[in-house]
Prior knowledge:
Blueprint: E1 8-13, H1 20-31, E2 35-37, H2 44-51, H3 58-74, E3 78-82, H4 88-97, E4 102-107, H5 110-118, H6 130-136, E5 146-150, H7 155-168
Parallel strand pairs: 1-3, 1-4, 2-3, 4-5
Helix pairs in contact: 1-7, 3-4
Amino acid sequence: MIDASHKQHIVVMGVSGCGKTTIGALVARELGLPFTDGDSLHPVENIAKMAAGTPLDDADRAPWLEIVGRELASSANGLVVACSALKRSYRDAIRAQAPGAVFLHLDGSREVLGSRLEGRSGHFMPATLLDSQLATLEPLEADEAAVVIDISAPVAALVGDAVVRIQQRH
């Protein structure tokens, strides 16, 4: 567990189907931090748009990213939040509110991601939007506080690796 005096802001990022919610919750548990699924922070209009199969544009995302950043910044002892954070500008918007945020990118091939989305039910994000998300995804840059994990690893190994690498950043 991380020293509670050091406030942790961790954003578990990646395209739909990469495991942000599952991995994020497990990483949060291992670090002794609360977890929030960023999807629950979307304005109602965004959810309706995505459910209809329409990709969000930057204007749609702006209020959501501000909410995500505020949630991180206002957390008493730190927080792990799942948020796609696909573009550098989105990550910058989050960092504007929570400057110390570390981004945990769950990276995977289109084939792995597609098969995960096809097997998922009850989610507002249809598998048909995967290609638009992959086209939008901007790789993390060297000056960003980040950890990249390959999602093809077994979940326990993936979580263990993520926790160790996050702890090494502090």
